Amino acid sequence: MKESRLQALRAVLAEKGLDAVIITKYVNLHYFSGFRGDDTTLVIGMNDAMLITDSRYTEQAGQQAPLFEIVEQKDGLLSKTAECVKKIGAKKVGFEGNAIIYDYYAKLGELLDGCEFNTPLKLDTLRQIKDAEEIANIRKACEIVDIAFADMLTYIRPGMTEVQAAAHLENCMRENGSEGPSFTTIMASGVRGSLPHGIATDKVINEGEFVTMDFGAFFGGYASDITRTICMGKADEKQRKIYKAVLESQLLGLSKIKPGVSGKSVHEAVQANLAKYDLAQYFGHGLGHSLGLEIHEEPRLSLKSTCEALQPGMLVTDEPGVYLPGWGGLRIEDTVLVTETGCEPLTKAPKELIELGVR
């Protein structure tokens, strides 16, 4: 694991006047130490880095977290964590305000008697710009979903259920190196396409319906995210018109993603384009989110985005959609890397309207 991540964290401690921080959130355990196990805490001070876990994980932790002192606990994770804090002489101790379980916080407060344990930190922001290793993992996760989508085009057919289609999709990702789906696979056909997060059901997929597939893979602990919508057979005029508007808007979003622009401005440009087709009112979510060790991270592309300037090394999704209750809907999404001069979609699967079975 890179020393630079600990240095960035220690800079936050110095800024806040803290001697140490206790880390409990799984993805941050991974990010700062390299360890990929649970039932663990990290105690990181200005000169110390300790990983506290039990005998199930000590060997693994020793291999994955070479920059950390591995401390085995036998009588309780929190009590050993507090013991380590006191061992390094920390008096002012921070915690992850958006992640720690309240019961953990309360118990640690009791165990850390004599320490100031009242400063919440937002450590997720340190993960916004990805390094080369992280980008390589996300790129591989994107290659996996591209392969799975290509396979689905040879497999999916009218008469099968959404659950059957989703199961095949997830199995294909596994066979091509995925550690597991990065979120619950969305498979929404026909009228269910109006549900932006319509997870697979026993509904039968029918001829003439749109099928929206939103799915992702984990590789090396890092997520990918893609959505493609296809038509089972020949699309009608309304389907073609709405698909064209969404695709045009998605491509516009790609043209706007670049260093220095705000997350809000990219969303607004895409929303304005959908408004030209009288469809903006059917696009109710943000244009995109970042991803990495978690499927939803900052920065966001939305009206509420706090990102004033995208930076190279950030990842965002570009996923406009249109959802009409009683009719259906569609979404097109890529995982996108912000580069020095613009952006690069890491998901490469075709986006033109696919009408399966139509020659």
Question: Helices, strands, pairings?
Answer:
Layout: H1 3-16, E1 20-23, H2 26-33, E2 41-45, E3 49-53, H3 58-64, E4 69-72, H4 77-87, E5 92-96, H5 102-111, E6 116-121, H6 132-155, H7 162-175, E7 186-189, E8 210-215, E9 218-219, E10 222-223, E11 226-232, H8 237-256, H9 263-275, E12 288-290, E13 297-301, E14 315-318, E15 321-324, E16 328-331, E17 334-338, E18 343-345, E19 355-356
Parallel strand pairs: 1-5, 3-4, 5-6, 11-19
Antiparallel strand pairs: 1-2, 2-3, 7-8, 8-11, 9-10, 12-13, 14-17, 15-16, 17-18
Helix pairs in contact: 4-5, 6-7, 8-9
What does this structure look like?
- Helix 4 crosses helix 5 (102-111) and helix 8 (237-256) runs antiparallel to helix 9.
- This protein has 9 helices and 19 strands.
- It has helices spanning 3-16, 26-33, 58-64, 77-87, 102-111, 132-155, 162-175, 237-256, 263-275; strands spanning 20-23, 41-45, 49-53, 69-72, 92-96, 116-121, 186-189, 210-215, 218-219, 222-223, 226-232, 288-290, 297-301, 315-318, 321-324, 328-331, 334-338, 343-345, 355-356.
- The strands form 6 sheets. The chain has a 6-stranded mixed sheet, with helices on both faces. A 4-stranded mixed sheet has the order 7-8-11-19, with helices on one face.
- 34% of the residues lie in helices and 22% in strands.
- Strand 3, helix 3 (58-64) and strand 4 (69-72) form a beta-alpha-beta unit.
- With 359 residues, the protein is of the alpha+beta class.
- The chain folds into 2 domains: 3-126, 3-Layer(aba) Sandwich (Creatine Amidinohydrolase, Chain A, domain 1), CATH 3.40.350.10; 132-356, Creatinase/methionine aminopeptidase superfamily (Creatine Amidinohydrolase), CATH 3.90.230.10.
